[in-house]
Amino acid sequence: MKQRIITAIIAAAVFVPIVIWGGVPFIILAYVLASVALYELLKMRNLKLLSIPGLISLAVLWIFLLPEQFQEFLDVLHYSKVEFALLAVLLFLTYTVGTKNRFTFDDVAFSTMAILYIGMGFLYFIETREAGLLYIFYSLFIIWATDSGAYFIGRKFGKNKLWPEISPNKTVEGFIGGIICAVIVALIFVFTTDINATLFELIIITILLSIFGQVGDLVESALKRHYSVKDSGSILPGHGGILDRFDSLLFVWPLLHFFHLL
């Protein structure tokens, strides 16, 4: 626990000021986090980042993350992000032939999905910050409230397992408790900020985001269980890897936009 607290304090001391500052430093932070998350995800399947498919994945991820104000070179090349992704798929498939199927079709699918999974989440991390600092803190606080509520309420009252095949410690009571705590945070935002939503709208959106945030956590747990990995990485002592810390938010940030909250 001491190690977790120390790591959390150091990480917050780096993360929060850059998020508040925004601009290019924030975009660089998003790129670094996404790159590390991609490395962790590829490593689960024993794919190396410093390899031809790994570098293709990284290059396409970086293109995918480009904010609108930095997309001039795409216009010059007359290519869209989608076209770069499709080109990557062709290169991956070509590499299966070049390696005589040591890099398999399953590896192509995994690498493509890894780019989309990580890229979508961190692209909308950047887009959310562009929409305003308020929405970044809203997303962070409701997920922190969800995680804390699920942990403490589940520990105190949890009796019914939520999904033992994937995450044996999570309970239905904790799941519901996390949603309740997130709604409490949403009420604070409604009455203390100028967030662009009515009370009813924000409660509904918060419930959905809390649910999908917990789903995001379960998705990463399912990945780790499938590949027999305890943590996605060790860059954050006591917490695991970047994916371990951002799994819920990778679902929440896109949904903030899909629900038209911003």
UniProtKB/TrEMBL annotation:
Record-level Gene Ontology MF annotations: phosphatidate cytidylyltransferase activity
Family: Belongs to the CDS family.
Enzyme Commission designation: 2.7.7.41
Matching InterPro entries: PC_trans (IPR000374)
Predominant subcellular localization, coarse grouping: membrane
Pathway annotation from the record: Lipid metabolism; Phospholipid metabolism; CDP-diacylglycerol biosynthesis; CDP-diacylglycerol from sn-glycerol 3-phosphate: step 3/3
Catalyzed reaction equations: a 1,2-diacyl-sn-glycero-3-phosphate + CTP + H(+) = a CDP-1,2-diacyl-sn-glycerol + diphosphate
Pfam families: CTP_transf_1
Location of this chain's protein in the cell: Cell membrane
Membrane-topology annotation of the record: Multi-pass membrane protein
The keyword Cytoplasm is assigned to this record: no
Name this polypeptide is given: Phosphatidate cytidylyltransferase
Transmembrane segments: 6-34, 46-65, 77-96, 108-126, 132-153, 174-193, 199-219
Enzyme class: transferase
Keywords: Cell membrane, Lipid biosynthesis, Lipid metabolism, Membrane, Nucleotidyltransferase, Phospholipid biosynthesis, Phospholipid metabolism, Transferase, Transmembrane, Transmembrane helix
